[in-house]
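Let us begin with a simple case.
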Amino acid sequence: MLASLRSFEKSAVVWVLALSDECERILKRISLPLIRIVPLRELLVYQPALRKIRRKRGPVEFYFTASPAFARMCLKKVPAKQLLTKLDADLYFYESPSLIHRLGKNHSIIITPHRFSSTLQERERFGKFNVGWVSLRNDRVGRKCAQDWEKQCLEWCHDFPELHRYADQKYLDAWPKKYPQVRILENSGANLANWNVGEADLRWDGRRVLVNGKPLIFYHFSGLRRMTERIFDPQWGQTSLRPSGVLLRKVFHPYLQALQKTRKQIGILPTEFGSLRYGGEAKKVIPMGFWKRLRRILRGEYLRI
């Protein structure tokens, strides 16, 4: 995500919340310009309430809770009237995101709808909008929104849906009516993902990917898992997605190749990708046999690079 963003926005300052020592160490190893590493301990100093919450909520729920607190912390760092954008780490940019900022130049808040495919409408119980991209301006409205969002998540932020809330995400449903100057980003090239790409018209014009006639700005690779050194699970089975050739060749393959290139450049060992730590416990991805991997690749369940 950082490398793709930097290829278009060379002067953008990016604050990265390092939620683990491993993350902080790897970010220091990357040493990209204008990247500001914020260790978790700094966020805990800014918002001490997170210390107690960290002991009561699961790791994923804590990450959700920390998200708006981190956004509000960073909002204090930008000049007045400037737009701050919260990004998920699993985004990849294919065009400059400056188009989004231009569309929201007169707005204090920019949010992106999920635009669920017709077969996935029931997923709106998790929220109409996606928190992969949330822009807040350092003005009265943006600061008020950030403050409210942080307070709500400190009070309740869990990994199951209720009527009007789910994690840090469903709170956004109320924003268009609750705050003035909210821009709902309807651009189909922004926040393309497995949950909405199934009914999108993807075409390659010889230079770029078009989504319903508009340039693909970024794809949200939510749920993508590395199964082995060269095999990835794109989680298409979760949305019954049948990928097109354009989606495979021009969207997923460039991203997977970029992951491989970055891994080699910064010297991350395969074992570092093979463990996922939650609550201090390392969960290993169990290796699959060759023929099982091959069958799943041929069925389109996995991708190999």
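The second case is a distinct protein. As before, the sequence precedes its structure tokens.
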Amino acid sequence: MATITTRVLQGFDDPSFGPELWEELMRKSGNSNIFLTWYWQRAWWETCGNGELLLITAEREGDIVALAPFYTKSGMIYFVCTGFESDHLDFIGDISDPAVLKALLETARDRVPEFEGFELYFVPGRSGTGKQLERTAEGLGLSCYADDETNPVIDIAGHPEIALATTRKKSLLRHERLLTREGPLHVTHLRDGDAILPYLDEFFEQHVARWAGTETPSRFVDPRIRALFKRFTSVAARTGWLRFTHLEWKRRGVASHFGTCYRGNFIWGSASFAIDLSPYSPGEVLLRQLLLAAIEEGARTFDFRTGSQPFKLRFATHVNPVHTWSMYPAKLKSLSTHDAAEALP
């Protein structure tokens, strides 16, 4: 069998592995996860990253077959983008060869002098990575266990009739008719980053107002998260992956959504609405417009991301499992799982 070699890249601007080769590796593996793209990963690291970046490639006969987008902090190793703003983190490329995964994990571990373990958040159950980690961990002297979460999804391609029916639910139509009876409703869909940027400050402020005084205040109170969204909008401005929807009613912005559509996977991102108009449910009107837009552009899936909120389960055709995989040196009998916030800078 061909020998597997590894190499730690010189960051996101490594001349040997730029955005084009990164995207080619995504394409070869059939990955449709926006959070693993060079553009999102770079934007996150530049605005929220803290610690040492460990972008590690595995190569077979000179060809890069897989990439581990890691970083390390306080002896722990995480996927880049670990935190609330990202989902579905994973290795990029083909790790079906056990030697590939073993080499990536060993290289990462050897780069951390006071190594404590791996915590790999939000790994999709369907990717097969979890089984590979379980098989590989023992050979590296690591214990391995998982925490489970859920990911509601609308399978538009597999169930187009159900997807279309979601846009005709009585509550969605009722609230939209209520608005349009009292004034004109204008829906704007944007994909170009330069066109989206002028809307973002209003979007952030509306989101902050929506969640003010609740147990879960808006993450946009954190200037790093605002910077992340602006940076991603700038670096991905011409990719065609951005999706920003703005609802204007009576010459006023009443709801907005910032999401993406990458390789047919339409992502429910962050949504805001004017809290003083909650009796009109502009958030439900916004959701209907997003569903219609995803269907119209031929998206395969409408992904609600991690979480089991009632409104997600109400519309989803199925729920995918998502796991956080923790691996610690086996000699440590018990260690509580680090909170996701611990991984944030």
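The chain has a mean pLDDT of 94. Residues 4-149+321-343 form a domain with the Aminopeptidase fold (CATH 3.40.630.30).
Keep these points in mind for the review questions at the end of the chapter.
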